[in-house]
Design brief:
This protein is an alpha+beta fold. The protein is 35% helix and 14% strand. The chain has one domain. It has a 4-stranded antiparallel sheet with strand order 1-2-4-3, with helices on one face. The protein starts with a helix and ends with a strand.
């Protein structure tokens, strides 16, 4: 691996920590890509499939992304935690369905679910801001091919204006392709570097994950 690749990673990680997120450096080849991940985008069919510009089939397929990933040497997995104590299906209903409704401009359920989902959406937007800033910092450090990706479907807009309405993305430098949409097995990749993800209803934290490819 080229020395340049490791030269300024400490600077990048320090800045990520300053932005209150957790960076974990890993070899790019440890990013797990599995075609079954994109298969799950439409079985059962995700609400973003075919409608969101940052999700399949509007982004490159997993096989093409694998070839791109082979060119990278190192990556930084970025974990941004969201505190969610007191929010559970028992008290707020099915939060996953509420999240889908929220991203389609529908009314969010009553009780505290709306507050939780709003915090979740704000945190996702914050992760996009972190990725955008880190890309800029990478360019200053000489990493011309640095690229940031984010888990989940892009929800910067209440409803994606691209496919359905034929408009250009209003956030071209903030919006990020879905890691899962590119075939990245986010859970397995996180486990390989010791990041714990808890999806149980009683968990008091949730995490947004981003991936910064550095080269």
């Amino acid at each position: 691996m080229e020395d340049k690749t490791f030269g300024n990673l400490e600077v990048l990680c320090q800045r990520i920590e300053e932005l209150e997120a957790r960076p974990v450096v890993l070899p790019a080849q440890d990013v797990v890509v599995d075609n079954r991940v994109t298969f799950k985008c439409f079985v059962p069919r995700c609400v973003f499939f075919g409608f969101n510009l940052m999700c399949p089939p509007n982004i490159m397929p997993a096989e093409q992304f694998k070839k791109v990933l082979e060119k990278y040497h190192v990556a930084i997995l970025i974990q941004l935690n969201i505190y969610s104590a007191g929010f559970s299906p028992e008290t707020c209903g099915d939060l996953s369905l509420a999240w889908e409704d929220m991203n389609h401009g529908n009314k969010v359920p009553t009780c505290n679910a709306g507050i939780y989902l709003d915090n979740l959406k704000r945190a996702q937007a914050r992760l996009y801001d972190i990725l955008e800033e880190m890309e800029s910092l990478c360019l200053k450090q000489g990493y011309l091919f640095a690229a940031g990706l984010a888990a989940g479907g892009c929800a910067l807009c209440d409803e994606c204006v691209g496919v359905q309405f034929g408009h250009r993305c209003p956030h071209p430098f903030r919006a990020r392709p879905s890691m899962e949409g590119l075939g990245i097995d986010v859970v397995t990749t996180a486990k390989k570097v010791g990041l714990k993800l808890d999806f149980s209803p009683g968990s008091i934290t949730r995490s947004w994950l981003g991936l910064l490819l550095v080269d």
